[in-house]
Design goal:
By secondary structure, this protein is an all-alpha fold. It has nine helices and no strands. Helix 1 packs across helix 3. The longest helix is centred in the C-terminal third of the chain and has 24 residues. The chain starts with a helix and ends with a helix.
C-alpha cells in the first residue's frame, strides 16, 4: 500500500509527473494496469487547480521578493511562453499532443500553464490535458514494462 502512495505522490510532482512515476511503480513491482491508472489519476489531480488558479498564483508569486519566489514565477511564465507556439499552431489538438508526447518539459503541469497563458477555454484545455495524460501514460507504460511483455500479457 505504501508503494501505491509513493507512486501517486510522484505522479503529482511538476517536471517528474507520470514520466517518472510509472518507471518508479514498475521498479516497485506494481502491476502495469494499476500503475498506469494510478499515475494518470495522480498526474491529473492538480490540473483543475492549475487551470483555474495559476494566473492568480503567478501574480502573488511575482510580489514575493524573498527566497527567489518572484524569479521562479518569471521562470514559469517564460517556460509557458516558450512552448506557446507549439500549442497554438494546432489549438486543442496541439495541447493534447504537447502533453501526450512524453518529452522533457512537456506534461500536464506545463500544458495547463500554457493553456492558462493562452486563455484557452478551461473545459477544452482540461479535455486536451486529460487525453494527453492518458496517451503519455500509455507510452511510458509500454516503455517501462516492455512492449513484448505487455503484448504477452494481453495474449
Amino acid at each position: 500500500m505504501k508503494n501505491w502512495l509513493y507512486v501517486l505522490l510522484i505522479s503529482m510532482v511538476p517536471v517528474i509527473e507520470l514520466r517518472g512515476a510509472i518507471p518508479a511503480g514498475c521498479a516497485l513491482g506494481l502491476p502495469w494496469y494499476a500503475n498506469y491508472l494510478l499515475c494518470c489519476f495522480g498526474n491529473l489531480l492538480p490540473v483543475p487547480f492549475i487551470l483555474l488558479l495559476i494566473d492568480k498564483v503567478l501574480i502573488l508569486m511575482k510580489r514575493m521578493h524573498f527566497l527567489g519566489i518572484d524569479r521562479f514565477a518569471n521562470w514559469l511564465e517564460e517556460k509557458g511562453e516558450k512552448n506557446k507556439d507549439r500549442v497554438t499552431k494546432y489549438a486543442t489538438f496541439g495541447l493534447l499532443l504537447f502533453v501526450g508526447i512524453p518529452l522533457p518539459g512537456t506534461g500536464a503541469w506545463t500544458g495547463s500553464l500554457v493553456a492558462s497563458l493562452l486563455k484557452m477555454d478551461k473545459r477544452r484545455a482540461f479535455v486536451s490535458v486529460f487525453f494527453g495524460v492518458f496517451l503519455a501514460g500509455a507510452i511510458v507504460t509500454l516503455i517501462s514494462y516492455g512492449v513484448l511483455g505487455f503484448l504477452k500479457f494481453l495474449l
